[in-house]
Description:
By secondary structure, the protein is of the alpha/beta class. The chain has 2 domains: 1-73; 80-292, Glycoside hydrolase/deacetylase (TIM Barrel), CATH 3.20.20.370. The protein contains 10 helices and 8 strands. Strands 1, 2, 3, 6, 7 and 8 form a 6-stranded parallel beta sheet that branches. Helix 8 links the parallel strand 4 (193-194) and strand 5. Helix 3 packs parallel to helix 10, helix 7 packs across helix 8 (206-218) and helix 9 (239-249) packs across helix 10 (267-282). The longest helix has 71 residues, at 3-73.
Amino acid sequence: xxxxxxxxxxxxxxxxxxxxxxxxxxxxxxxxxxxxxxxxxxxxxxxxxxxxxxxxxxxxxxxxxxxxxxxxxxxxxxxxxxxxxxxxxxxxxxxxxxxxxxxxxxxxxxxxxxxxxxxxxxxxxxxxxxxxxxxxxxxxxxxxxxxxxxxxxxxxxxxxxxxxxxxxxxxxxxxxxxxxxxxxxxxxxxxxxxxxxxxxxxxxxxxxxxxxxxxxxxxxxxxxxxxxxxxxxxxxxxxxxxxxxxxxxxxxxxxxxxxxxxxxxxxxxxxxxxxxxxxxxxxxxxxxxxxxxxx
Length: 295
């Protein structure tokens, strides 16, 4: 073999080695590039995930703040203005009406009343019995979440127990409030508002009521009765009876506090409520609850 052939042979071998080396480099480069791209994509995915997670966390925190503000806004605070408002509850330059319901909640009647109030976009006031709150906490929670004012009508509705002493009246108030707090999940809730079972004035317990009134005031609690009736407590069964009873008192006042009941045997009240609402609307009354009073 001559020298030229030998050189050509080694040259071809070097070229083959170079080509193989180049191919290896290309393959390694492609593998590295693929890993690099995968790493970059993984980092992008991770960063996107972290950004989304941050957004979600921020949104959740913002929603919690909104819920907290909403919760705080539903916490009544009895100021001097609120006390004066209670004293002048039956006086107003403009026509207003407070729909109030005692003795609930009940599983049969209260939801019907709430459905009507929601459909009519009206906020009412419920004077609750603590013993019935404990039986129907989910209904009480609905009342609260739909913007109705929850006040105390005591715990037992047993007059001899309630009016055993001024302290027992306060105990009834507090026991009811604890039941409400548990039902709505808001331990700070206190309406500062009580309705004496049977009304504040008169009756065989009038002296105890007067003494209890002073004790309630010392504990930053006010009370309210009513100046208009539907006679559902007296056994009225028809809408016509309800309206006839309203006609006896409503025309006398610009500011009306209507007594009704949402106990389980008061289905007639739920049935008459749409007509009662129309009655007041037709006469130019605006509907309020005690959030506009206790402040």
